[in-house]
Amino acid sequence: MSLGCLILTGGASSRMGEDKACADWLGRRAVDRVADLARAVGATTVLTVGPRKLGLDAVTDEQAGGGPVAGIAAGCATLHAGGCERALVLAVDAPTIRAPDLASLLDAPPPGAAFAHLHFPLVIDLASLPATIVAHRSVARLVTSAGLTLVEPPTEGYRRLRGANTPEERAALLRELELHEGL
What we know:
Order of helices and strands: EEEHEEHEHEEHHEHH
Helix content: 25-40%
Distance between the termini: 37 Å
Shape: globular
Radius of gyration: 15 Å
Largest sheet: 7 strands, mixed
Strand order of the largest sheet: 5-4-1-6-8-7-9
CATH class: Alpha Beta
């Protein structure tokens, strides 16, 4: 199945205190790290979803204030129109995820999978999207109505998958990234 990726960038970043998409992660913006990961795991199309232009192909959700589900709906429609059959949905606040962290989601049979106890990342077959996706307004309800399999996140990668919503979480993930990249 052809894989596309949506990078959710529409959050207000209020707990972080700075724009999470443009935050510096060892000399690279978070959004660029997430886009590179998507390409590394096979995404042929990578779109950001949010109100800002970040130098990548982008889609804006047409339902202002609709939250992540409205963004997913808009992004999935664009991916589907472009010939993708499956979507990997990533949050921009998790730029330290590694390809092996996503293996169980990417290997899941149709209609896709999500990690238990985490909203993102998730993988969904575009044909499995409920017709009334925007009405769900809750990522948990979207996961349930699409029939996604819930899998346990890898213990070793849990913090990376959860991402950085506060300066303290960012500092811890930056230390881990420095060690991983040998800096």
